[in-house]
Amino acid sequence: MEETSRARLVNVWHIGAWNRNIGDWALAYQLHRLLNEQGRPRDVTFKFYMVDSQRTYFHQALVDQMNEEADLILVGGGGLIFFRPEDKSISGWSFNIEPEKVCALKKPLIVYAIGYNRFAYDETEFPPATAEHLRITQAKAALFSVRNNGTRRTLIERYGLDPNKIDVVPDPGICLYDRPIEIRPKRNAAPFIAVNWAADRPHQRYPKPSEENAKYFLISLKTALVQSVKDLGTQILFLPHLMQIDTDIFEYFASGFPKGSIFSLHHELPYIYAPPGEMLYAHVPFFTNVFRQADVLIGMRLHNCVLGFGAGKPFITLGSHPKLGFFAEDTGLMKYKIPLVDPNEETPERMYATIAACLKDEAYKEQVRSALCSELQKLRSFNERLLDLVS
């Protein structure tokens, strides 16, 4: 560790999904600031070197550099327990490094709040290498943590990891370090609902016939929101996380709403949406401030709910992905959900009833605030253990 006039500088190689999803950039941004805040009383400061876990192959020369330069190797958070055949990952998950190179790491390894990220209707199995690689990584790690109890159960039951060496740590996205930004079309008097719809992977998100069900659920949610505008005076913010993937459906989704009742953040604040492949880090504090301005978040992407929770706002989980349920379970906020599984049960009328009830539920809002205090304490407590390793 490098000594400075003010504090000991800890060089961190931070490995995670730093590509086009702003939710992952948000968790990194919050974690970096929180660690430096907690390190200050110990005269410790962190410098982060970010490495994309999905698009980086850890060849030997890169591993040698990491062993030479890093004081700490941090993997996560985010849904890194994820497999796509086209990624050709050596490990079978989103840490593309051979097992022997994991064993040869010379600096402390921290696995931080990673999540099991298999979609509900994904028929692709993880390869045999995944379980062994995760066990080797766990054995090597000074601290090994996951972001929810659902992931912990999965790693123990399906992959044979040691239950005595898995901590559960909330996603650091719950600790917002945001900066105010004006959303000009927002009507301050209107109940403000921010909606995130993920338009990718319909065959993995919905039961068969998946394309038909995806269209039905989208139209049903739209119908429910239009009704909320007419009956409750709401205003709707379309809140994409990924350019193109999340934004391309907006014009279709917005058609038929009363004038001025819906707009999209990527139209109103286009400068916080960098083109795919560019760094999104600098845009995080402004993107996350939007969550403070909403009254209710409806989220298909997990970080829409995580960031809304971090802002102390009620959220409604949207979709079938298990990680949404895992998050709601751990926070104790399972009351409001739209699973998008059964077209016969999930009608526009029932969706509207869920949205209306959530908007009016003052007890639920207090429950959110109480749960946030509890989860932030867990996050900070784990960070103190991390700081013990470098102090």
Notes on the protein architecture:
The protein is of the alpha/beta class and 391 residues long. The protein is 41% helix and 17% strand. The chain has helices at residues 22-39, 60-69, 99-103, 129-140, 149-157, 202-205, 210-232, 250-254, 265-268, 284-293, 302-310, 322-331, 348-360, 362-390, and strands at 2-3, 8-16, 44-52, 72-81, 109-116, 143-146, 167-168, 192-196, 235-238, 262-264, 296-299, 315-318, 337-338. The protein has 14 helices and 13 strands. The chain has 2 domains: 2-175 and 374-390, Rossmann fold (3-Layer(aba) Sandwich); 192-360, Glycogen Phosphorylase B (Rossmann fold). Helix 1 crosses helix 14. It is globular, with a radius of gyration of 21 Å. The strands form 2 sheets. Strands 1, 2, 3, 4, 5, 6 and 7 form a 7-stranded mixed sheet that branches. The protein has a 6-stranded parallel sheet with strand order 10-9-8-11-12-13, with helices on both faces.
SSE blueprint:
Layout: E1 2-3, E2 8-16, H1 22-39, E3 44-52, H2 60-69, E4 72-81, H3 99-103, E5 109-116, H4 129-140, E6 143-146, H5 149-157, E7 167-168, E8 192-196, H6 202-205, H7 210-232, E9 235-238, H8 250-254, E10 262-264, H9 265-268, H10 284-293, E11 296-299, H11 302-310, E12 315-318, H12 322-331, E13 337-338, H13 348-360, H14 362-390
Parallel strand pairs: 2-3, 2-4, 4-5, 5-6, 6-7, 8-9, 8-11, 9-10, 11-12, 12-13
Antiparallel strand pairs: 1-2
Helix pairs in contact: 1-14, 7-13
